[in-house]
Amino acid sequence: MEQFGPVSEFMNDFPKFVVSTTLSTVEWKNSTLISGNVAEQLRALERQLGKNIAILGTATLVNALLLQNLVDDLQLFIDPIIVGKGKRLFEEATDRLPLKLCGSRAFATGALFLVYEPAVG
């Protein structure tokens, strides 16, 4: 990982929590495996750390946490490309979850960065 410079050093030193139903160990430096009752463990982790937890690139986990009302906000990047196939981001959601746009940024490439929170009421 050293060949990638400061970014890989930061990622290696940063604490990481890996949620998995198939792994029994994790090898990446400063990584902790979370399995079993994920929601309960994430609640405890957030209380212990006193900080927000970011989830990167896993629709399955985000869906599970949305269903348990454990997501404070969704930060989405939308790229201006149509791929024609793919997995729906919220395919496991069974109920409507109204969202409120809290922030946005448009890039010269046409990409959008959108921040949503669950709408109250």
CATH fold-level topology of the largest domain: Dihydrofolate Reductase, subunit A
Q: Which value, in Å, is the CA radius of gyration?
A: 17 Å
Strand content: 15-25%
Q: How far is the first residue's CA from the last residue's CA?
A: 47 Å
Give the strand order, joined by hyphens, for the main sheet. Answer: 3-5-4
Q: CATH superfamily assignment of the largest domain?
A: Dihydrofolate Reductase, subunit A
The coarse overall form would be globular
Largest sheet, in brief, is:
3 strands, antiparallel
Assigned CATH class of the largest domain: Alpha Beta
The assigned CATH architecture of the largest domain is: 3-Layer(aba) Sandwich
Mean pLDDT: 83
Describe the structure.
- The chain is α+β, with helices and mostly antiparallel strands and 121 residues long.
- It has two domains: 1-53, no CATH class; 55-121, Dihydrofolate Reductase, subunit A, CATH 3.40.430.10.
- It has helices at 6-13, 38-49, 59-67; strands spanning 16-19, 31-34, 74-78, 99-106, 112-118.
- β4 (99-106) and β5 form a beta hairpin.
- The longest helix is centred in the middle third of the chain and has 12 residues, at 38-49.
- The model has no long low-confidence stretch (mean pLDDT 83).
Helices, strands, pairings?
Blueprint (H helix, E strand, L loop, with lengths): L5 H8 L2 E4 L11 E4 L3 H12 L9 H9 L6 E5 L20 E8 L5 E7 L3
Parallel strand pairs: 1-2
Antiparallel strand pairs: 3-5, 4-5
Keywords for this entry:
three-stranded antiparallel β-sheet; 3 helices; 5 strands; 121 residues; alpha+beta; 2 domains; two-stranded parallel sheet; Dihydrofolate Reductase, subunit A
